[in-house]
Amino acid sequence: MHYKSAVAGIVWPAVPDDAAARLLALLWQFRQTAHWPPDVLVQHQLRQLTLIVDHALRTVPFYRERLGAAGWRSGDTLTLARLRELPRLTRRDIQDAGSALRSSDIPQQFGAVHESHSSGSTGQPVVVFRTALDTLLWQANTLRDHEWHGRDLSLKFAAIRALAKGAADPPHGAMSSSWGAASGAICTTGPSALLSLDADVSTQITWIKNHAPGYLLTYPGNLAALLENFAQSKERLPGLRAVLTVAETVAPALRTACRDVLGVNIEDVYSSQELGYIALQCPASGQYHIMAESVLVEVLDAAGNPCAVGETGRLVISSLHNYATPLIRYELRDYATVGKPCSCGCTLPTLASINGRERNMVWLPDGNRRWPVLGLLPYREAAPVRQFQMIQRSLQAVEVRLVCDRALTPGEEAQLGEKIRVELGYPFELRFAYYERELPRAANGKFEEFVCAIE
To answer: At 37, is the secondary structure helix, strand, or coil?
Structure first.
Protein backbone atom coordinates (compact mmCIF):
# COMPACT_ATOMS: atom_id res chain seq x y z
CA MET A 1 0.00 0.00 0.00
CA HIS A 2 1.35 3.44 -0.95
CA TYR A 3 0.16 6.07 1.50
CA LYS A 4 -1.03 9.38 0.13
CA SER A 5 1.10 12.43 0.92
CA ALA A 6 -0.54 15.82 1.49
CA VAL A 7 2.69 17.74 0.87
CA ALA A 8 3.61 18.54 -2.72
CA GLY A 9 7.05 17.23 -3.67
CA ILE A 10 7.02 14.55 -0.95
CA VAL A 11 5.96 11.05 -1.92
CA TRP A 12 8.01 9.06 0.60
CA PRO A 13 7.67 8.87 3.46
CA ALA A 14 4.16 10.19 2.98
CA VAL A 15 3.05 13.16 5.06
CA PRO A 16 -0.69 12.66 5.64
CA ASP A 17 -3.26 15.39 6.12
CA ASP A 18 -5.14 15.69 9.41
CA ALA A 19 -7.96 13.28 8.50
CA ALA A 20 -5.57 10.59 7.26
CA ALA A 21 -3.27 11.08 10.26
CA ARG A 22 -6.16 10.36 12.65
CA LEU A 23 -7.09 7.20 10.78
CA LEU A 24 -3.50 5.97 10.63
CA ALA A 25 -3.02 6.70 14.34
CA LEU A 26 -6.10 4.62 15.20
CA LEU A 27 -5.02 1.83 12.87
CA TRP A 28 -1.57 1.76 14.52
CA GLN A 29 -3.21 1.49 17.96
CA PHE A 30 -5.51 -1.29 16.73
CA ARG A 31 -2.45 -3.32 15.71
CA GLN A 32 -1.22 -3.13 19.31
CA THR A 33 -4.52 -3.67 21.15
CA ALA A 34 -5.30 -6.72 19.01
CA HIS A 35 -2.53 -8.52 20.92
CA TRP A 36 -3.09 -7.26 24.44
CA PRO A 37 -3.75 -9.76 27.24
CA PRO A 38 -7.55 -10.15 27.48
CA ASP A 39 -7.74 -8.84 31.05
CA VAL A 40 -5.87 -5.66 30.10
CA LEU A 41 -8.25 -5.10 27.18
CA VAL A 42 -11.28 -5.47 29.44
CA GLN A 43 -9.81 -3.00 31.94
CA HIS A 44 -9.52 -0.37 29.20
CA GLN A 45 -13.03 -1.09 27.95
CA LEU A 46 -14.46 -0.61 31.44
CA ARG A 47 -12.49 2.61 31.98
CA GLN A 48 -13.94 4.06 28.77
CA LEU A 49 -17.45 2.79 29.43
CA THR A 50 -17.38 4.32 32.93
CA LEU A 51 -17.01 7.73 31.26
CA ILE A 52 -20.00 7.01 29.02
CA VAL A 53 -22.16 5.91 31.96
CA ASP A 54 -21.26 9.02 33.96
CA HIS A 55 -22.00 11.22 30.94
CA ALA A 56 -25.36 9.49 30.47
CA LEU A 57 -26.25 10.00 34.13
CA ARG A 58 -25.51 13.73 33.93
CA THR A 59 -26.88 14.65 30.50
CA VAL A 60 -29.46 12.07 29.32
CA PRO A 61 -32.92 12.25 30.95
CA PHE A 62 -33.71 8.61 30.21
CA TYR A 63 -30.52 7.40 31.90
CA ARG A 64 -30.74 9.85 34.78
CA GLU A 65 -33.80 7.99 35.96
CA ARG A 66 -32.69 4.51 34.93
CA LEU A 67 -29.15 4.61 36.30
CA GLY A 68 -30.27 6.35 39.46
CA ALA A 69 -32.78 3.57 40.09
CA ALA A 70 -29.97 1.03 39.58
CA GLY A 71 -27.93 2.73 42.32
CA TRP A 72 -25.30 4.29 40.03
CA ARG A 73 -23.70 7.42 41.40
CA SER A 74 -21.35 9.82 39.66
CA GLY A 75 -17.77 8.76 40.35
CA ASP A 76 -18.58 5.04 40.59
CA THR A 77 -16.26 2.65 38.74
CA LEU A 78 -17.49 -0.10 36.46
CA THR A 79 -16.47 -3.71 36.92
CA LEU A 80 -17.91 -6.56 34.89
CA ALA A 81 -20.05 -7.55 37.87
CA ARG A 82 -21.31 -3.97 38.31
CA LEU A 83 -22.00 -3.67 34.58
CA ARG A 84 -24.25 -6.74 34.70
CA GLU A 85 -26.32 -5.10 37.41
CA LEU A 86 -27.31 -2.31 35.04
CA PRO A 87 -30.58 -2.84 33.15
CA ARG A 88 -30.49 -3.76 29.47
CA LEU A 89 -31.63 -1.34 26.78
CA THR A 90 -34.21 -2.68 24.31
CA ARG A 91 -35.38 -1.38 20.95
CA ARG A 92 -38.73 -0.64 22.53
CA ASP A 93 -36.94 1.47 25.18
CA ILE A 94 -35.29 3.51 22.40
CA GLN A 95 -38.61 3.99 20.61
CA ASP A 96 -40.46 4.97 23.78
CA ALA A 97 -37.73 7.29 25.09
CA GLY A 98 -37.51 9.37 21.92
CA SER A 99 -35.62 12.62 22.53
CA ALA A 100 -35.15 11.73 26.22
CA LEU A 101 -32.37 9.34 25.12
CA ARG A 102 -30.34 12.11 23.47
CA SER A 103 -27.65 13.88 25.46
CA SER A 104 -28.25 17.54 26.26
CA ASP A 105 -24.51 18.24 26.30
CA ILE A 106 -22.67 16.51 23.45
CA PRO A 107 -18.98 17.52 23.63
CA GLN A 108 -18.09 19.75 20.67
CA GLN A 109 -14.79 17.95 20.08
CA PHE A 110 -16.77 14.88 18.96
CA GLY A 111 -17.77 16.72 15.79
CA ALA A 112 -20.98 17.00 13.83
CA VAL A 113 -24.01 15.05 15.06
CA HIS A 114 -26.10 13.01 12.63
CA GLU A 115 -29.08 10.69 12.79
CA SER A 116 -28.61 6.96 12.23
CA HIS A 117 -31.67 4.93 11.27
CA SER A 118 -31.67 1.20 11.93
CA SER A 119 -32.80 -1.13 9.18
CA GLY A 120 -35.92 -2.12 11.06
CA SER A 121 -35.36 -5.80 10.16
CA THR A 122 -36.77 -6.74 13.56
CA GLY A 123 -39.98 -4.85 12.83
CA GLN A 124 -38.88 -2.21 15.38
CA PRO A 125 -36.94 0.53 13.54
CA VAL A 126 -35.06 2.94 15.78
CA VAL A 127 -33.25 6.25 15.41
CA VAL A 128 -30.08 7.07 17.34
CA PHE A 129 -27.70 10.02 17.10
CA ARG A 130 -23.99 9.60 16.42
CA THR A 131 -21.06 11.95 16.04
CA ALA A 132 -18.17 12.43 13.65
CA LEU A 133 -16.01 10.44 16.08
CA ASP A 134 -18.25 7.40 15.58
CA THR A 135 -17.73 7.80 11.84
CA LEU A 136 -13.97 8.01 12.36
CA LEU A 137 -13.95 4.74 14.30
CA TRP A 138 -16.14 3.12 11.63
CA GLN A 139 -13.61 4.15 8.99
CA ALA A 140 -10.65 2.90 11.05
CA ASN A 141 -12.30 -0.52 11.41
CA THR A 142 -12.94 -0.54 7.65
CA LEU A 143 -9.21 -0.11 7.12
CA ARG A 144 -8.50 -2.85 9.67
CA ASP A 145 -10.77 -5.21 7.71
CA HIS A 146 -8.92 -4.46 4.46
CA GLU A 147 -5.55 -4.92 6.19
CA TRP A 148 -6.47 -8.21 7.86
CA HIS A 149 -7.60 -9.74 4.58
CA GLY A 150 -4.68 -8.36 2.58
CA ARG A 151 -6.91 -6.74 -0.02
CA ASP A 152 -5.34 -5.12 -3.04
CA LEU A 153 -6.80 -1.62 -2.93
CA SER A 154 -5.61 -0.89 -6.48
CA LEU A 155 -8.30 -3.19 -7.90
CA LYS A 156 -11.90 -2.25 -8.63
CA PHE A 157 -14.44 -2.58 -5.82
CA ALA A 158 -18.10 -3.25 -6.66
CA ALA A 159 -21.08 -3.19 -4.30
CA ILE A 160 -24.74 -4.15 -4.75
CA ARG A 161 -26.88 -3.00 -1.85
CA ALA A 162 -30.16 -1.30 -0.89
CA LEU A 163 -30.01 2.39 -1.78
CA ALA A 164 -32.32 5.36 -2.09
CA LYS A 165 -33.88 5.96 -5.49
CA GLY A 166 -31.56 7.88 -7.75
CA ALA A 167 -28.36 6.91 -5.92
CA ALA A 168 -27.18 4.10 -8.23
CA ASP A 169 -30.17 3.00 -10.27
CA PRO A 170 -29.94 0.07 -12.70
CA PRO A 171 -28.78 -0.76 -15.24
CA HIS A 172 -25.63 1.37 -14.97
CA GLY A 173 -25.40 2.24 -11.27
CA ALA A 174 -22.82 4.80 -10.20
CA MET A 175 -19.04 5.13 -10.20
CA SER A 176 -16.47 6.67 -7.84
CA SER A 177 -12.75 7.24 -8.23
CA SER A 178 -11.92 5.54 -4.90
CA TRP A 179 -13.09 2.78 -2.55
CA GLY A 180 -14.61 5.32 -0.20
CA ALA A 181 -13.81 7.91 2.46
CA ALA A 182 -11.65 5.66 4.65
CA SER A 183 -9.41 4.11 2.01
CA GLY A 184 -9.36 7.21 -0.17
CA ALA A 185 -8.13 9.33 2.74
CA ILE A 186 -4.88 7.42 3.22
CA CYS A 187 -3.95 6.08 -0.20
CA THR A 188 -4.75 6.07 -3.89
CA THR A 189 -7.16 3.22 -4.61
CA GLY A 190 -8.78 1.71 -7.64
CA PRO A 191 -12.27 2.85 -8.63
CA SER A 192 -15.50 1.59 -7.14
CA ALA A 193 -18.87 0.81 -8.70
CA LEU A 194 -22.24 0.83 -6.96
CA LEU A 195 -25.58 -0.66 -8.01
CA SER A 196 -28.95 -0.55 -6.31
CA LEU A 197 -30.45 -3.84 -5.18
CA ASP A 198 -33.53 -2.83 -7.19
CA ALA A 199 -31.80 -4.38 -10.18
CA ASP A 200 -33.04 -7.84 -11.10
CA VAL A 201 -30.54 -10.69 -10.98
CA SER A 202 -29.89 -10.82 -14.73
CA THR A 203 -29.12 -7.08 -14.72
CA GLN A 204 -26.79 -7.59 -11.76
CA ILE A 205 -24.97 -10.41 -13.54
CA THR A 206 -24.41 -8.26 -16.64
CA TRP A 207 -23.27 -5.33 -14.50
CA ILE A 208 -20.78 -7.48 -12.56
CA LYS A 209 -19.31 -9.01 -15.72
CA ASN A 210 -18.96 -5.58 -17.34
CA HIS A 211 -17.08 -4.18 -14.34
CA ALA A 212 -14.99 -7.33 -13.64
CA PRO A 213 -14.26 -6.26 -10.04
CA GLY A 214 -11.51 -7.52 -7.81
CA TYR A 215 -13.93 -7.49 -4.87
CA LEU A 216 -17.72 -7.70 -4.71
CA LEU A 217 -19.83 -6.67 -1.72
CA THR A 218 -23.49 -7.62 -1.31
CA TYR A 219 -26.00 -9.28 1.02
CA PRO A 220 -25.90 -13.08 1.55
CA GLY A 221 -29.45 -13.50 0.24
CA ASN A 222 -28.60 -11.65 -2.95
CA LEU A 223 -25.34 -13.57 -3.31
CA ALA A 224 -27.28 -16.84 -3.20
CA ALA A 225 -29.33 -15.73 -6.21
CA LEU A 226 -26.20 -14.62 -8.08
CA LEU A 227 -24.46 -17.95 -7.40
CA GLU A 228 -27.46 -19.87 -8.72
CA ASN A 229 -27.18 -18.00 -12.02
CA PHE A 230 -23.40 -18.33 -12.29
CA ALA A 231 -23.66 -22.05 -11.50
CA GLN A 232 -26.21 -22.55 -14.28
CA SER A 233 -24.13 -20.66 -16.85
CA LYS A 234 -20.86 -22.20 -15.58
CA GLU A 235 -19.27 -18.76 -15.86
CA ARG A 236 -16.65 -17.42 -13.47
CA LEU A 237 -15.17 -14.02 -12.74
CA PRO A 238 -11.42 -14.47 -13.38
CA GLY A 239 -10.29 -11.31 -11.58
CA LEU A 240 -12.45 -11.73 -8.47
CA ARG A 241 -10.45 -12.08 -5.24
CA ALA A 242 -13.24 -12.32 -2.62
CA VAL A 243 -16.91 -11.64 -1.92
CA LEU A 244 -17.65 -9.39 1.05
CA THR A 245 -20.98 -9.86 2.82
CA VAL A 246 -22.88 -7.63 5.22
CA ALA A 247 -26.25 -7.25 6.99
CA GLU A 248 -27.44 -10.89 7.03
CA THR A 249 -26.36 -14.21 8.53
CA VAL A 250 -24.07 -16.28 6.30
CA ALA A 251 -25.00 -19.97 6.17
CA PRO A 252 -22.19 -22.57 5.83
CA ALA A 253 -23.79 -23.80 2.61
CA LEU A 254 -23.44 -20.35 1.07
CA ARG A 255 -19.72 -20.27 1.86
CA THR A 256 -19.30 -23.64 0.18
CA ALA A 257 -21.32 -22.56 -2.86
CA CYS A 258 -19.26 -19.39 -3.27
CA ARG A 259 -16.02 -21.37 -3.30
CA ASP A 260 -17.44 -23.99 -5.68
CA VAL A 261 -19.06 -21.58 -8.13
CA LEU A 262 -16.80 -18.51 -8.11
CA GLY A 263 -13.64 -20.01 -6.61
CA VAL A 264 -13.34 -17.38 -3.86
CA ASN A 265 -14.12 -17.10 -0.17
CA ILE A 266 -16.75 -15.04 1.61
CA GLU A 267 -15.35 -12.41 3.99
CA ASP A 268 -18.12 -11.38 6.35
CA VAL A 269 -18.65 -8.30 8.52
CA TYR A 270 -21.00 -8.09 11.50
CA SER A 271 -22.22 -4.55 12.13
CA SER A 272 -25.31 -2.49 12.86
CA GLN A 273 -26.38 1.04 12.03
CA GLU A 274 -26.69 1.85 15.73
CA LEU A 275 -23.30 0.48 16.84
CA GLY A 276 -21.05 0.42 13.78
CA TYR A 277 -18.61 -2.47 13.43
CA ILE A 278 -19.20 -5.23 15.98
CA ALA A 279 -17.00 -8.06 14.67
CA LEU A 280 -14.84 -8.95 11.66
CA GLN A 281 -14.30 -12.42 10.28
CA CYS A 282 -10.78 -13.71 10.89
CA PRO A 283 -9.01 -14.71 7.64
CA ALA A 284 -7.12 -17.49 9.46
CA SER A 285 -9.78 -19.26 11.53
CA GLY A 286 -13.12 -18.05 10.14
CA GLN A 287 -14.22 -16.96 13.62
CA TYR A 288 -15.35 -13.38 14.25
CA HIS A 289 -13.09 -11.05 16.23
CA ILE A 290 -15.01 -8.51 18.29
CA MET A 291 -14.01 -4.89 17.69
CA ALA A 292 -13.28 -4.44 21.39
CA GLU A 293 -11.87 -0.94 20.93
CA SER A 294 -15.36 0.23 19.90
CA VAL A 295 -17.83 -2.03 21.69
CA LEU A 296 -18.06 -4.20 24.80
CA VAL A 297 -19.94 -7.36 23.91
CA GLU A 298 -21.71 -9.72 26.32
CA VAL A 299 -23.15 -13.08 25.24
CA LEU A 300 -25.79 -14.06 27.80
CA ASP A 301 -27.85 -17.19 28.40
CA ALA A 302 -31.58 -17.21 29.20
CA ALA A 303 -30.85 -16.45 32.86
CA GLY A 304 -28.66 -13.46 31.98
CA ASN A 305 -25.37 -15.18 32.81
CA PRO A 306 -22.29 -15.06 30.55
CA CYS A 307 -22.07 -17.93 28.09
CA ALA A 308 -18.99 -20.16 28.00
CA VAL A 309 -17.01 -21.12 24.89
CA GLY A 310 -19.26 -23.05 22.51
CA GLU A 311 -22.51 -21.84 24.10
CA THR A 312 -25.04 -19.74 22.22
CA GLY A 313 -26.68 -16.73 23.78
CA ARG A 314 -28.21 -13.33 23.29
CA LEU A 315 -25.92 -10.44 22.37
CA VAL A 316 -25.91 -7.39 24.66
CA ILE A 317 -23.60 -4.61 23.45
CA SER A 318 -22.36 -1.33 24.90
CA SER A 319 -20.96 1.40 22.65
CA LEU A 320 -17.73 2.80 24.07
CA HIS A 321 -17.76 6.18 22.35
CA ASN A 322 -21.30 7.35 21.59
CA TYR A 323 -21.81 10.51 23.65
CA ALA A 324 -24.85 11.60 21.61
CA THR A 325 -27.13 8.60 22.26
CA PRO A 326 -25.39 6.39 24.82
CA LEU A 327 -26.16 2.73 24.15
CA ILE A 328 -25.45 0.92 27.41
CA ARG A 329 -26.15 -2.82 27.44
CA TYR A 330 -28.15 -2.60 24.22
CA GLU A 331 -30.02 -5.80 23.40
CA LEU A 332 -29.79 -6.25 19.63
CA ARG A 333 -31.96 -9.40 19.65
CA ASP A 334 -29.19 -11.22 17.80
CA TYR A 335 -27.76 -14.54 18.95
CA ALA A 336 -24.16 -15.70 18.67
CA THR A 337 -21.95 -18.58 19.79
CA VAL A 338 -18.91 -17.77 21.94
CA GLY A 339 -15.65 -18.59 20.19
CA LYS A 340 -12.38 -19.97 21.48
CA PRO A 341 -8.95 -18.28 21.52
CA CYS A 342 -7.98 -17.76 17.90
CA SER A 343 -5.17 -19.58 16.11
CA CYS A 344 -4.14 -16.35 14.34
CA GLY A 345 -2.53 -14.94 17.50
CA CYS A 346 -4.96 -12.05 17.83
CA THR A 347 -6.29 -11.87 21.41
CA LEU A 348 -9.47 -9.93 20.68
CA PRO A 349 -12.51 -11.89 21.96
CA THR A 350 -14.19 -14.15 19.42
CA LEU A 351 -17.59 -15.31 18.28
CA ALA A 352 -17.63 -18.71 16.62
CA SER A 353 -20.70 -17.76 14.62
CA ILE A 354 -23.45 -15.18 14.28
CA ASN A 355 -26.67 -17.15 14.46
CA GLY A 356 -29.27 -14.54 13.59
CA ARG A 357 -32.17 -13.02 15.42
CA GLU A 358 -34.82 -14.53 17.67
CA ARG A 359 -37.28 -14.07 14.81
CA ASN A 360 -35.14 -16.48 12.76
CA MET A 361 -35.83 -19.34 15.20
CA VAL A 362 -38.64 -21.84 14.70
CA TRP A 363 -41.15 -21.88 17.56
CA LEU A 364 -42.26 -25.42 18.37
CA PRO A 365 -45.70 -26.19 19.90
CA ASP A 366 -44.08 -27.43 23.14
CA GLY A 367 -42.59 -23.95 23.68
CA ASN A 368 -39.04 -24.80 22.64
CA ARG A 369 -37.22 -22.82 19.96
CA ARG A 370 -34.42 -23.89 17.64
CA TRP A 371 -32.39 -22.71 14.65
CA PRO A 372 -33.50 -24.32 11.38
CA VAL A 373 -30.56 -24.98 9.05
CA LEU A 374 -32.62 -24.64 5.91
CA GLY A 375 -29.81 -23.67 3.56
CA LEU A 376 -28.38 -27.19 3.70
CA LEU A 377 -31.56 -28.92 2.50
CA PRO A 378 -31.16 -30.66 -0.89
CA TYR A 379 -34.08 -28.78 -2.43
CA ARG A 380 -33.27 -29.45 -6.03
CA GLU A 381 -33.10 -33.19 -5.41
CA ALA A 382 -36.81 -33.03 -4.62
CA ALA A 383 -37.94 -30.18 -6.87
CA PRO A 384 -36.51 -27.50 -9.21
CA VAL A 385 -36.33 -24.83 -6.49
CA ARG A 386 -34.43 -21.63 -7.23
CA GLN A 387 -35.23 -19.58 -4.13
CA PHE A 388 -37.09 -20.24 -0.89
CA GLN A 389 -38.28 -18.52 2.25
CA MET A 390 -40.36 -19.78 5.16
CA ILE A 391 -42.66 -17.71 7.35
CA GLN A 392 -44.00 -19.32 10.51
CA ARG A 393 -47.57 -18.05 10.86
CA SER A 394 -48.63 -20.02 13.94
CA LEU A 395 -47.49 -22.87 16.20
CA GLN A 396 -48.96 -25.27 13.66
CA ALA A 397 -48.50 -23.64 10.25
CA VAL A 398 -45.59 -22.45 8.09
CA GLU A 399 -45.86 -20.63 4.78
CA VAL A 400 -43.31 -21.88 2.24
CA ARG A 401 -42.51 -19.33 -0.45
CA LEU A 402 -40.83 -20.68 -3.56
CA VAL A 403 -39.44 -19.58 -6.90
CA CYS A 404 -39.16 -22.64 -9.16
CA ASP A 405 -38.16 -23.42 -12.74
CA ARG A 406 -41.68 -24.69 -13.36
CA ALA A 407 -44.85 -25.67 -11.54
CA LEU A 408 -44.25 -28.53 -9.10
CA THR A 409 -46.07 -31.81 -9.34
CA PRO A 410 -48.05 -32.95 -6.27
CA GLY A 411 -45.41 -35.61 -5.68
CA GLU A 412 -42.54 -33.09 -5.77
CA GLU A 413 -44.38 -30.79 -3.39
CA ALA A 414 -45.03 -33.67 -1.00
CA GLN A 415 -41.39 -34.84 -1.11
CA LEU A 416 -40.12 -31.31 -0.54
CA GLY A 417 -42.57 -30.86 2.31
CA GLU A 418 -41.28 -33.93 4.11
CA LYS A 419 -37.69 -32.70 3.92
CA ILE A 420 -38.77 -29.32 5.32
CA ARG A 421 -40.73 -30.88 8.20
CA VAL A 422 -37.75 -33.03 9.18
CA GLU A 423 -35.48 -30.00 9.33
CA LEU A 424 -38.03 -27.88 11.24
CA GLY A 425 -38.42 -30.69 13.78
CA TYR A 426 -42.22 -30.84 13.70
CA PRO A 427 -44.97 -31.96 11.25
CA PHE A 428 -46.14 -28.42 10.50
CA GLU A 429 -48.98 -27.71 8.12
CA LEU A 430 -47.12 -26.29 5.10
CA ARG A 431 -48.83 -23.73 2.89
CA PHE A 432 -46.97 -23.32 -0.40
CA ALA A 433 -46.92 -19.97 -2.18
CA TYR A 434 -45.26 -19.61 -5.59
CA TYR A 435 -43.56 -16.55 -7.07
CA GLU A 436 -42.51 -16.09 -10.69
CA ARG A 437 -39.14 -14.33 -10.52
CA GLU A 438 -37.82 -13.39 -7.11
CA LEU A 439 -39.08 -13.39 -3.54
CA PRO A 440 -39.83 -9.97 -2.04
CA ARG A 441 -37.28 -8.37 0.26
CA ALA A 442 -37.74 -6.12 3.24
CA ALA A 443 -37.62 -2.38 2.56
CA ASN A 444 -33.98 -2.33 3.77
CA GLY A 445 -32.94 -4.89 1.14
CA LYS A 446 -32.36 -7.71 3.61
CA PHE A 447 -33.57 -11.23 3.06
CA GLU A 448 -34.18 -13.87 5.72
CA GLU A 449 -34.60 -17.56 4.93
CA PHE A 450 -36.81 -18.19 7.97
CA VAL A 451 -38.98 -15.69 9.86
CA CYS A 452 -41.12 -16.48 12.89
CA ALA A 453 -44.06 -14.08 12.57
CA ILE A 454 -45.91 -15.24 15.68
CA GLU A 455 -46.67 -12.27 17.95
So the answer is: coil
Per-residue model confidence as pLDDT tens digits over 18-28: 999 999 999 99
Domains of the chain: 362-452 (3.30.300)
DSSP annotation string for 86-121? SPPB-HHHHHHHGGGGS-S---GGG--EEEEE---T
Question: How far apart are the C-alpha atoms of 355 and 36, rounded to whole Å?
Answer: 27
- DSSP secondary structure letter of residue 329: S
Instruction: Give the integer Cα–Cα distance in Å for 293 and 261.
Output: 36
List Cα–Cα distances, 287 to 93, 148, 319, in angstroms: 31, 13, 22
Q: What is the dihedral sign for C-alpha 71, 72, 74, 76?
A: positive
Percent of the chain with pLDDT over 70: 95
Helices (H), 103-219: 132-148, 181-186, 201-211
- Full DSSP string of 347-412: -S-EEEEEEEEGGGSEE-TTS-EE---GGGS-HHHHS-EEEEEEEE-SSSEEEEEEEESSPPPHHH
Residue 220 parent element (H or E): helix 220-233
Q: Which of 147, 115, 148, 119 is nearest to 134 (CA)?
A: 115
Q: Is 199 helix (H, G, I), strand (E, B) or coil?
A: coil
Q: How far apart are CA 429 and CA 365, in angstroms?
A: 12
For residues 275 and 327, is the Cβ–Cβ distance under 8 A? yes
Of the candidates 368, 360, 366, the one whose C-alpha atom is nearest the C-alpha of residue 333 is 360
Sequence-distant (6+) residues with CB within 8 A of 36 are: 44, 347
Spatial separation of the C-alpha atoms in residues 243 and 258, rounded to whole Å: 8
* CA dist., res. 289 & res. 278, Å (int): 8
Residue type, 363: W
The helix or strand, by DSSP H or E, that contains position 221, with its residue range, turns out to be helix 220-233
Contacts with 261 (C-beta within 8 Å, 6 or more apart), sequence order: 227, 230, 231, 236
C-beta neighbour count of 58 within 10 angstroms: 14
Distance CA 305, CA 326 (A): 23
Over residues 330-384, the pLDDT tens digits come to 998 889 999 999 999 999 999 999 987 767 778 889 887 776 766 656 677 788 8
